[in-house]
Amino acid sequence: MSGFDRRLITPLVAGAVLNPVNTTILSVALVPIGLALGEPPSAVAWLVTSLYVSTAIGQPVAGLLIDRYGPRRLFLPATALVGVAGALGTVAPNLAVLVVARVLLGLGTCAGYPAAMRLLRDEADRTGEDSPGGVLTILAVATQTTAVIGPPLGGVLIDLGGWRTTLAINVPLALAAFVLGWRHFPRDRAPRRPQRTRSFTLSGLNAPLLVTYFRAMLSSVVAYGFIYGFTQWLQAGRGFSAGESGLVLLPLFATAIVVAAVSGRSEALRAHLVLGSAGQVVVCLLMLTLTPASPLWLILLVTLVSGVPQGLVNLALQHAVYRQADPARVAGSTGMMRTFLYVGAIAVGAVQGVVFGDRVDTDGLRELTAVLLGASVVFLLVNVFDRSLSRPRE
């Protein structure tokens, strides 16, 4: 990281974390929102699905535009949209307006991560370093941290000011990211001309990259199913408050950060993915043992173990895309990976709507966990039998 412009690190992180924090912070607010607005869990679930759908559509588009026109031109207006969406959600009088706010949040946060990857690739080209691994690790740890700290942060905000604070927090976050991007992002050059190559398909797609996208989808089914399904069960099935549910997830937060920081020093991507997917299988098996009378130590063990795959898988997927993508299309390829992540999240969100229906209970959690277990087993098998990431870089 010696030749990398360190002034870019803070705005890179500030922009990239807007999406993961909005993905998870709402998990502890779903029950309070439903109670406040008189809506059942199946209706409140649209707050989750709406962000997933808008992000799944918006991220590859944002990535392709960033590759074409530069990160600054897309990052600044998108970040401003996050602030507008946060303000709208804060004053939303009903569920419909909240859904609109979440759609705008999804679109506004689309540019952060692809812009970060585009700037990393540009800096690698400028400095001659093949991969700024240290910066990739910082970025992964930051996004991992905010994704996992979302539920505890949401619980604290709800205890302090009610569920609307989980939307209002976007206003200062967006303002900070906008100012940092304005000050430190380099001015964009003239738009790049699209490159035509014989191997070009959607976002420079190639076979190894397609497998990585499939991995991302499978991993997100388990990760998002756990974050939302398990957290709702803690409140409605186990009787914890929003703040207590957030605190219960702290072991996940701590473990994921440590694992991501340690694993970031190595590029043994296949080993990380095999271990991470095996960890997801273990988490699902532990979840099947939960009941309303489960002791606190068992619940904490589940969250502690879940931090291991959370820390391993996300960083490995990020490195895989950086390695496998066409350098000229790294932002678009990153955006496409995020789309596959959200396709998995949308799928598991639909499953949650079916298994929970109008009431979150332990039977529904077990049905959800059975689906997560199936996805984690397939994810493990893909990683065991696909050896493309074990090959040296060409």
Report on this structure.
The protein has one domain (8-183, 199-390): MFS general substrate transporter like domains (Growth Hormone, Chain: A, Up-down Bundle). The two termini are 22 Å apart. It contains 18 helices and no strands. The protein is globular, with a radius of gyration of 20 Å. The chain has helices at residues 9-16, 18-24, 30-37, 41-44, 46-69, 71-90, 95-108, 112-127, 133-161, 165-168, 170-184, 207-236, 242-248, 250-263, 269-287, 296-324, 330-356, 362-385. Keywords: Membrane, Transmembrane, Transmembrane helix, Transport. It is found in: Cell inner membrane. Residues 8-391 form the Major facilitator superfamily (MFS) profile domain.
Summarize the model shown.
The protein is an all-alpha fold. It has 18 helices and no strands. About 2% of the residues have low confidence.
Spell out the key features of this protein:
394 residues, 18 helices, mainly alpha, Growth Hormone, Chain: A
> What characterizes the major β-sheet?
none
Report how far the terminal alpha carbons are from each other: 22 Å
The amount of helix comes to over 70%
Radius of gyration: 20 Å
CATH architectural arrangement: Up-down Bundle
Looking at CATH, which topology would you report?
Answer: Growth Hormone, Chain: A
CATH superfamily: MFS general substrate transporter like domains
Count of DSSP-assigned helices: 18
The unreliable regions are: 196-201
Q: For this structure, what is the CATH class?
A: Mainly Alpha
> How many β-strand runs?
0
User: Which sequence of SSEs, written as H and E, runs from N to C?
Assistant: HHHHHHHHHHHHHHHHHH
Number of domains: 1
Strand portion, in percent?
A: under 5%
